[in-house]
Amino acid sequence: MYAEKVVCRPGLHVFFPARVAVIFLVLALIISPARAELYFNINALHLSEEQKSQLDPSLLSHLTNQLPGVYQVQLSVNQHDMGEKKLRFITCGEQLCPQLPVSLLQASGIKTTAIPGLQQLPQDAVVSNIAAYIPRAAADFDFDKRRLNLSIPQAALDSQVQGYISPDRWEEGVPMLFSSYSLSGAKVKNHRDGQETSQYLNLRNGVNIGPWRLRNYSYYARTAAGKSDWRSLQSWVERDIKALRARLIVGDTATPGLIFDSFSFQGAALTSQDEMLPFSMRGYAPVIHGVAMTNATVEVRQNGNLLYQTFVPPGDFVINDLYATGTSGELEITIREEDGSVRKSIQSFATPPVSLRQGRVKYSLTAGEHGDRTGTENGKVTRRFTQLEAIYGLLNTTSVYGGAIAAQDYQAGTFGIGQSLGALGAVSLDMTQAMTRFCHGDSSRGQSWRLRYSKQIERTGTAMTLAGYRFDTDGYYSFDEATQYYHSSSQALRRSLKNRAQLTLSQPVGRLGAVALSASQQAYWHQNGLKTRTVTSSWSKNFDGVTINLSQSLNKSGQTGKTDSVIAASLSLPLGKWLTPQSTRSLTMSNRFAYSPSAGSNLTTTLYGTALENNNLSWSVAQARNQYGGRVNESSALFASLQSSMSTLSLGYTRYYGQNQRVTWAARGAVVAHPYGMTLAQPLVDGGSYALIRAPGAGKVGIVNHNGLETDDRGYAIVPSLSAYQENEVALDTSTLGNDVDLTDPVQKKVPTREALVLMDFNTRLGYRAFLKITHHDKPLPLGTLVSAGDVSGIADERGQVYLTGLPEKVELNIPLPGNTLCKIPFDSRSNTAHNGIIMAELKCKN
To answer: What class has domain 766-845?
Structure first.
């Protein structure tokens, strides 16, 4: 990490332009910390004897000390990002040392309570030399990049699971008022009936204040008959409960459906949230136990792919933070001992349909009112209720779950178990007992039994993703059914489920593609034995971008007993890949044929692709032919959609030959008010998180990896979709910067909470760029001369040339010269001509 002596050998030939080489040499010496005295041999540069005599070697022999003070830095521990922190730095010899609060060390995963010297310090105490408390620890501060990395021995760190992000880094974001809208309309012209016009507006409105989120869904519709309808559908407020890794919701919402069937209600819900956990703790994955004889490396593989690697001391070890690895399979565990010996073992696993990792709990507690609050012909049908659902990872292969509903005239309880059977798959079994009373005084009791099974065969690739069977006795009603049929006077009028079976299979067939099968059947009590049945099968194949798909579906109605079937085939051709292989534009032709006895045949050919520089224009052209009962109908359609930073606009036209024409249009976007004003944005993703880009003066700058997104004229933009509770990196496209704009750092990293608007404040430097050649007494400035203009500064190369950015229109250049003299040159950026955005000028020191 440290160099004892730095020497540039004489006779080094510089192939770079001299000014660039000098800048790199100076920066290298500034950035590289060293304990011993640094030495630079000026003979390595091609300078005249006069230039060498004017050069002050101290400029290149000593580090330029940065000023102590408070700096906003990007903190990392062992190269793991911990977010931005504002820290005070003090001078330690020729470098800056951070003042690290004990509370920050603890939040960064350091075991402060177990380290002598740190455990006695209060939380607000600061540590200047971390190596004095933790042997072999170090703090490395990159001043230019404002990055501070703490190198901490593993023994001094808390054991953390893969992908763990401290809740201290979660940001609630800035206050926000927004409305995300979807506005659409259609105009239909019929040759016989004239024309009809309709409009529809959907609004998702919200307010963010600290951790609180107030939300509302509303819509407005105007039909072709001229009738208007404005309605508020849902309103609620929610917030995170970080300590519980849960979310509290009050208002119009729905139960999560962990155990019982989901239903809408008005009330309050406290529900645990998997998204607050690292990915390595979500869902189910097996726990691996083992014993290491020495300091060993443990590797976990599946199908030859390395899933996990860790280092363990001698003794028992446990791996409980594997990422979810599928529904079933085999894990190969390899233990590599310090002496070179290797031991391997195989552990089979299967994921039960209802399961959690060992020791984990998932729960939901809800209370409120369920039913139709607008009333029915029999009056208002609502029920107050309380519901509890929970799943617990009891053992490595066993999860238990259960719940209860207590309501007016309805009670239900359920209990189940999820069990991994290893190589045989996994199964979940549960039973629900319910009691229902109806308004006419009669009551009903019943049970519901549910069996679910899953299995994946790795060798053949067969995946039975879910096979389930449910049987309800006569008299069993779910809570939603009990509320719906509360006023029914006869049991025969109450349509309750009798049984339901479903199966999903998928099977790859090598080079021939893959086949899939999905089937379900359900029957109801008192429905004369009628059953609803659906069977869907498909085959698909992709080769070199060409996609073929064949499918067939059968549907039997439980109401009429009639069966309908649909046979379909599609072919997709990547024309863009064939015609212009190097182009980033897409161009695809799709052909689809479908036949149904009840609807006839349909053949549709579609040509679609993208255009414009960033592919933010999507378009399609389609031709369709329908034939049924000897009658043929044809239609043609055009469609285009343009995506910009402020909205997504689309326009469509369809012509039905011999009948009518239809024009459709739509606009989707969002209006966001925040502490810095108001910004138009693309539609905000429901349930996601968002970023407010603030780069004052950097207008029309693109956002990397966000198609069509750029800052507005003021330098603001909204990124409409981030991952909540995960680290998100947003970067500005520096190639789109204006000639008068520079960025200190074009990349920001933030960890937002759900639906938070986090501020990503980019430090912009506005002003002119200039490449100046400065002479004094008709000779170039000495190498290494510092040229400053307010906050802007640069170092002269051996030709007296200096590059400055961020210059105002008028400024005075300050240049220290040999003999303790100061040269001042007034400079007017506007009076000089710029070439490719850079001013080229020659200046003279006259004193």
So the answer is: mainly beta
